[in-house]
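pasting for the record
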Amino acid sequence: MADRSATAAWIAQAEASANRPVHLLELVFDSETTYLTDADRAITWGSNTYQAMGHFLAFSDIEESSEVEVTSMTGTLSGVDQAYVALFLSETYLDRPVNLYKAFLDAGMGVVSDPLLIFSGRLNQPVINENPDEGSCTIAISATSHWVDFERRPGRHTNHAEQQVWFPGDLGFEFSSEVVKEIRWGRT
């Protein structure tokens, strides 16, 4: 991992023989920004309080490369608190920013220096998994880096599905996939 502009205090903690690492997760929605941590208590950093009631359970490995490529991360939240399930069911979640930071705590359980951003991406696919037999519920949030749209062609596409996104009920492109003609402009 490159130093990514890590502060001297952060690097010293990362290299220490004993440290207290924690992760800070930000989920940005239209109505609110949710702050969660995997620490055993609430963490305050940057005038935000990251809640630590065990709702941020884990996240997948984050791979790095020197190439320009799409990276992804999957985080797991507890769905036992129905507030998070309701949040994903009621909010527009596609393409919402997701940031994951790594921080270290000092002896007084305060954040040492500035946390390091280890993943920044866009939310694309939360999945709610309920298991009534075990009494568990989890929300798996998948996010991809900003490179996900790198090879995407800009503009509108002339197909029925995309027309329904912009103009529901309009049937102007309903048969566009069946009318395939080769048009040669400027030739006889």
